[in-house]
Write a structure and sequence with these properties.
Blueprint lengths: L1 E5 L8 H11 L3 E4 L31 H11 L4 E8 L5 H15 L3 E6 L4 H7 L6 H17 L2 E5 L4 E6 L11 E5 L3 H9 L3 E3 L8 H14 L7 E5 L6 H10 L3 E4 L8 H13 L3
Parallel strand pairs: 1-2, 1-10, 2-3, 3-4, 4-7, 7-8, 8-9, 9-10
Antiparallel strand pairs: 5-6
Helix pairs in contact: 1-9, 2-3, 3-5, 6-7
Length: about 280
């Protein structure tokens, strides 16, 4: 089981120091959240059953791939991820270029978690069709994968249209960085099974996983895929090696944890978790 940390609950001022300490303690990965913009007038929630957004419109937000480029220079081993990047809000040129920058600067340590997004007002603010976001994400991913792997690319699609372009440098990892598909519905499972390094369920409990993982395996087999699909789950109930084992038995391959309640306690929380869980996992 890989164990990562989520920086979303840590004050931005502490991200670099937390990253350095996490790298030293042996955590496998770091993950940061993302929004392009949060309009003042919003409705909805990414969490099933919730009737309001979990974030205020004035929350401080930094560009995630810019931040990961900075953290790449402050760390040596730990993987650097987005949980998750709203890829559909950008032109794939923008995403591919920013991702390959992190990839090169980190020596291939980028894990690009992507999703279709849940905040209609954010898509409205950018002038994009929220109801067609799934198809736009599929096309954006396809273009990025080609830019990362082919010498020259020409594309004429529903959302993006361009003549021959070259794209250099190519990522450290042949074919591009790891792409983890966030989401819970049939389309997310399809993307994870066909183009994702892994799947990142957002609203699944441990009891929900077996049925979805069986469906994921079925889709992957149908697509002719033989390599394993990573399953990454953000949790708040892991305190012991036994807790980790429960998730491993359910099919999870990576847990994202936040072993602190306040930013000032992050370092102590990480150290305690490393001593009691990482050392035994």
């Amino acid at each position: 089981m890989d164990i990562g940390l989520h920086l979303g609950s840590v004050n931005l001022r502490h991200w670099a120091s937390v990253a350095e300490e996490a790298d030293r303690l042996g955590f496998e990965s770091l993950w940061i959240p993302e929004h392009l913009v949060v309009p003042v007038d919003v409705a909805g929630s990414p969490h099933e059953g919730a009737d309001h957004p979990p974030i205020p419109s004035d929350i401080p937000i930094l560009d995630p791939l810019g931040v990961l480029s900075h953290l790449a220079a402050r760390t040596e081993r730990i993987r650097l991820g987005t949980h998750v990047y709203n890829i559909g809000l950008r032109h794939p040129f923008t995403t591919a270029r920013a991702a390959v920058t992190v990839d090169m600067l980190s020596g291939g340590r980028l894990s690009l978690g992507v999703g279709v997004g849940w905040l209609r007002a954010e898509w409205d603010a950018v002038g994009l069709d929220f109801d067609r976001r799934g198809a736009r994400v599929d096309e954006a991913l396809a273009v990025c994968r080609r830019l990362w792997s082919e010498p020259v690319v020409e594309h004429h699609g529903e959302f993006f249209d361009f003549g021959l372009v070259a794209f250099e440098p190519k990522p450290v990892r042949p074919g591009g960085p790891d792409v983890h598909i966030g989401g819970d519905g049939p389309a997310a499972l399809r993307r994870a099974a066909t183009v994702g390094t892994g799947w990142m369920p957002m609203n699944h409990t441990i009891d929900d996983l077996p049925r979805s993982l069986a469906r994921l395996s079925e889709l992957a087999e149908r697509a002719g895929r033989t390599d394993p699909i990573e399953v990454t789950l953000a949790v708040d109930d892991v305190r012991t090696p036994t807790d980790v084992e429960r998730y491993a038995e359910a099919g999870v391959t990576r847990l994202i944890v936040t072993p602190w309640t306040r930013s000032r306690d992050a370092s102590d929380g990480m150290r305690r978790f490393a001593e009691t869980v990482l050392a035994q996992a």
